[in-house]
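FIELD: query
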Amino acid sequence: MKIDTDKLVDANGLLEALFDEGCRPTVRWLRNQQKNRAIPYIKVGHLVFFDIVQVRQAFEKKNTVRARLGQQ
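FIELD: result
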C-alpha cells in the first residue's frame, strides 16, 4: 500500500501510516504524545492534523537507541 506523505492526516491516518496493524498504538497514546509535545502537529481551528514525515522524524530523533561501538 502506497501512502501519500504530501498530505496532512488525522490521528487515525497517522497511526495507519506509521505502524503495522499488529503493533499499532491507540489514538489515546497518540494524543498523549501530542499533549507532551513529543510530536509536531498542526491545528486548523479545532481540527488537528499531522505531517507523516515530520512525526516520523520526531520519533526517530527522540526514540532511536544507538548502539555503542567498541565496548564489550
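FIELD: remark
The chain has one domain: 8-63.
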